[in-house]
């Protein structure tokens, strides 16, 4: 595995597009929190802020705030993964790796390495964001309470990256894969969630990306929904969404291995 990691590093260390994507990915986690903070401090009346309770950047609420925002802005990590994977097919480097002695399983492992690496980068960036915003803009002492939301975010981004990986391996062309990925994230799944929730209830929250979103509601939204609707019951228990995310992870990894082991090079 160390040899695989070394080879993957050699592929990207001088690849300018990779580093541009990395910078944009980090900014996609950090920058939106400045916007949200500005909105809550300058544009929401103080009476409304009192109704909502503590600041969204006070501990322990800051964990949920940062994770929730990240769940909507971290799709760029998926675009980076698609670029890395489709480049293998475009430039036939996957074929060369296998000619040089890799097994097909090794190629899949090399891409799963990027899934894990990018997910950890997103997780650690979110952790730093929590510490920055909770420490600078929060008015309460540091607390690990609610830190589980960051781990929910980690699971969600792993599922998102695995979907990007599967799509890249199926399509093999960068432009088309990116269009399909963005279309699924921003339009198709949201439409399916809306339709299924409207006619079948909470089961609509069990789609791959939506399951993570259900675990990561923005802190004040549920409170507002309860105030607006006395009959509001909320989604399934968290354990249901966690189990669904784990099932998606196992299923997509199996599909990726199946695709690579059976397809023509």
TrEMBL record:
Keywords: Membrane, Transmembrane, Transmembrane helix. The keyword Membrane applies. It holds the Pfam family ABC2_membrane_4. The chain crosses the membrane at residues 20-41, 61-85, 112-137, 149-171, 178-200, 240-257. It comes from the Bacteria. The keyword Membrane applies. This is ABC-2 family transporter protein.
